[in-house]
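pinging the channel bc i need a second pair of eyes. not urgent but kinda urgent?? the chain im working w is below, pasted from the shared doc
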Amino acid sequence: MTTPLSGTHHGLTAGDYHATIASVGASLRTLQHRGRHLVVPFDADDVRPVFRGATLAPWPNRVVDGRYTFDGADQQLALTEPGRGHALHGLAAWLDFTAVDRTASSVTLAATIEAQEGYPHRVEVAVVFELDEDGLHTTVTGTNSGPSPAPWGTGPHPYLVAGDGRVDDWTLELPASDVLTVTEDRLIPVGLADVAVEAGGVFDFRAPRRVADTFIDHAFTGLLPAADGRTTVTLRSAEGTGVAMTWDEACPWVQIHTADRDTPELSRLGLAVEPMTCPPDAYNSGTDLIVLASGQSATASWTIAAL
């Protein structure tokens, strides 16, 4: 049987949840609760659009101009966001991951980021997807199997769906006090700003409110976790259905994007919520950048659940 363009598929079921994981990019292709979509899906034979559901590693978001200096050496990455001239969302998104463990409700996928131009390091990436009655839990572990230190960051790229309608119709609660401002044309980081002040408070969703026509493609920090130390972003429809994404202190940043597209029928279908271990362009700023010594691992995890 021919393998779909998005890779080998792994269907997971637990209670009222069903998920489909595609091996290319260790991507979350579908997630449903009682038949209701919680993320924007894509078809098995689609070339995965706009990083939908992909695992991002060894960096999330952008490296500006694809250039950085690490361990005394200047590096130039391939410019995978040619319109803005940046290296976007790491090197793992088009790797074909292999299943190394499998049950009816879980799958562990593994791939190796080989040393290459711009990233002369070998890092093993393991992604565990596990469904239970509390939703879909994902854990990403990067292990440096090369001889020298390696920069590392990770995060997911789901587009959450609250229910009927589009992003404009849904109510967002985002417990973050700071937004990373960026240049309008190339989204290059400028600096942190108070969400209550920046652009008249348009990025302040600490109290739940409707997204309406707000455009967001920004990273947020100053996260305000619950008593258990976990941060939760919620998205609810006018009918009361919704979806939540939760993560712990391994991800002190989250990128939010309203998924605006030039084609109206494809625009704002879901809200990208991307917990990140580091901010955009961390390879240059060094902010929250993880440096893996030879043999060292780092892990981050998150959960998507129905409301």
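so The mean pLDDT is 97. and The longest strand covers residues 123-132. — does that match what u expected or am i reading it wrong
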